[in-house]
Amino acid sequence: MKRERKRQTHHARTLERILGRLRRRSMMLIALRALLGFMAGCGALLLLAAALLGPIVSPVSAVGALMASALTGGALAFHFIRPLIPLSPDRIAMLFERQEPGLGRAARSAYELEREEESESRGSAALRRAHLEELTKKLEHARVEAILPVRAALIKPALSALVIGFIGLAANLVDGDLKAGTLALFRAPFHTAEDLATGEIIRLYRVDIEPPEYRGGETRRGLESASLEAFEGSTLHFSLEPRVEADELIVLFDEERISLERDRRGLYHGTHRLSRGGRLVVRLKTPKGEWVEDLRGRAIRAIPDPLPRLELSELHRDEDLSRVLLRYEAEDDHELASLDLILSIDGYREIRRAIDDGNSSEAVLRGIETLDLREEGAEPGDRISVYLEARDRGRPPESRIVRSEALHYEIPSPESERRQNLNRIDAALGVTLDALADRLDEPRVHPVDDVREERIIRSTSAVLPALREIENSIAKADRPLLQRFERALRQEAHFEAEILARRSPPRAPLERAEARIVEALREGVLLLDDLRAKARVEDFQEIALELEQLRREIASLLAEWARTDHPDTKRDLLRAIARAERKLDALRARMAESGLDLPREFVNQGEQPSLMSSEELMSLREAVESGSIRDAEASLLALERELHSLTSAFTKEEGEPLGGSRFGPRQKALAEAIEAVRGLEAESQELAREHVTLRRNVAERALERLESKNQRIDPHRLKDELDALRSAVEELRRVLPSASDSDQIARIAGRVNDVVAALESGDIAEASEMAAEAQAEAVGFYRDLAIRSSMFPGRRGEMREAAEVAEHVAEGATRLRAGVDSSLPDLNEGMRASERRQLEELSRRHRAVSEVAERVESALREGPDGAPLSEEAAAALRVATEHLNESAARASERDPIASSDSAAMAREALRKTREILEDYQRNPSPSSGEGGGLGGGGGAEGRSRSSSERVKIPGESRAPEDERRRRIRDGLRDQAPPDYRDAVRRYYEELLR
Description:
The protein is of the alpha+beta class and 993 residues long. Helices cover 61% and strands 13% of the residues. The strands form four sheets. Strands 1, 2, 5, 7, 8, 11, 12 and 13 form an eight-stranded mixed β-sheet that branches. α22 packs antiparallel against α23. The longest helix has 58 residues, at 507-564. It is elongated. Mean pLDDT is 76; it is low at 117-123, 653-657 and 928-974.
């Protein structure tokens, strides 16, 4: 029973599947016939409406035509699908009649019986199953494609749609008005203009684009696209032809009305200069007076002329920014009107250097520029911005400027150098602390731990390079302390390394070496901490003095501005105020940083004056900017009081806020050594003078005897001395090509030639006198160059090198004179008894001076703390002592020439010793420059100026430049009477400024 039921269900599902396939195919054909019929009917009526209504269609007419077209298309579609609509699931089975007669009725009856409720009669159910099984066997071989063929079902609607489509396409290609009418039907209902007819009214739309004059190029002609692009400033030439009769045709472009003129052919023409892009609308006026707007959307986009692309990069720069090498590149799509390199100094002064003036007509410019920032007027501490500025040839010209990214520089100044020195000391202190911490945190064990030993050796080894790095960053007087620490650490580290190199390092020596290294590192940390504190205080003092110098400059500029009211003077005044504000901000920042390095009460002394000085500077700047001279003078007076308080807070001597126990005795010992050397130099000068007088008297008598005997000196005996002196003079001419020094070099060379001529003529007296003059000229010139090199060493040490060569010239002139004098006959023959006694007295005094010099030398080699005060000065004093002993020995031997020469060399050695010690004393930090520092070398005035900057003196002078500089230096050193001191100071400040 169950098997019979299952078979019946299978045959029923087979029948359902076959009927479903037939139903889906019939639905597809219905949809295709409906679509093709709709397209054919709608397209036919649309063509008819477009031909009847034309290009100008009102929105109401367009909507009516579209609705009528849709209804026509729907009717035709219904006509094509009507035969297939009544195909319900039971009636669709009748389609099988097309394959076999009677099969459709059998399928329909089987479907209807299956849907009825099952009869209770077993016989009736059996008949139905037999009938269904027989039917499914026949339907399994039925082909749905044959029952509902596609070609027969679609041929009529497809043919209708193709015919209508071909007619429409041909009409639109042949007749433009029909196309315009068709487009108008679709667009008119959606047009938003009020009280304005719309339609496709333009048959021809053409634009010629003429580029701007500055760009050149050819005109683009015959552009018909609805969307165009053109550069700003281009000229647009419109050409339009309407489809309908028009009395007037206008173009509305970005709300701007463009009137067009009609030519004889019926075309309308107009011109417009493009300034900005926008939407373009065409309107015409019909003969009836109605305005009609073209429905087609059009637009023109204005392309801004691309600005030039600029790039500025740095290739090289010197350490002192004396020479900066820049590479530039400027590129434009057309041409550049101009290209300038601009230097902005502190924002108050702008220097423009033209790279290209636009005459080259190039689109790409590349090159290299060299700048000397100091020659451009920048001073130490100034902040400079360098950038390119290019001007394009576009319109308007004031908006066609582009600037590159700026390169920023700050001219090195004593302040920045002091900051670098302080950073180096901080770094060295950190490295030393790390080395000490590594040893204290993890004590050494036995047997040794290789990892620990490697770590502590590495950290200890890093201390020595750090110490060498800061050797030139501290004062010369403090370097022996650092060198003593370095020697001790190197010696102990070497000893420790030798012990660790053994196969089984002994414990006791290692512990002793460890203890000594820890003690050395502790002393080094304390020394470096004191050096850092001292450097900070010296930095405060230097900044305070530089602020005072800036105040004087501001006062001078303010007085000049009040007198002339010149804008350049006001600009320089604001620039000086800005520099003072930056310097004061730097001082306050460094005071805040030094809270852990210096006693707080020391730092607090300068906080209030610095704050008040900042406020007074702000008031001064506001007064200058507003043009109020009275308020500016009042603020300047208040600023002077505050800066005086600030300077006093950092330079007063009561109390020792930093390492006074370490540096105080050394400074005192150095001052005592300087006083002792000055006394020795004065005594040596007196001894040398007496030697020269005695020598001259004895030599004159010897010359008289020689001339009476008519004897001559062979010049070839002095060939070596002459050759060496001439070579030194030529070297001096090479290293010192300055015209102002050529006269003195020529005078020295002339005296040497005079010596040779006198010797050849036999005039020994003249030769001796010319040799003495050559020596005096050479020694005097050397001294002058030594002073100049201490104040103006040159960018690369040129003046210092010239001073060294001049020293060789002076030594050669001294040897030449000694050679000439040694060629004289024996002087002892004409020496009197008083002169012999005088030589004995000079010998005794030389020995006394030598004994004092040896004591001073010992004090210099062993300072109060065991570290030498100055090895360099001690070595120079040792040379002086040797010359003193030599002079004493020759004097005791009654040799006036040799003793005189040794006395002169002793005097020079003592002078050099004094200069070395004075340089140590007045140069507390390297950043103060050669001959600078607190209390000497011109003070803040000399330090704030560039080494290459010349001193400008008002008026014209025919004297050589070195003479003018010598007068200025002598004036700065000499003490004026109290009543005239301020006037003299202002005079020399004006000369320097």
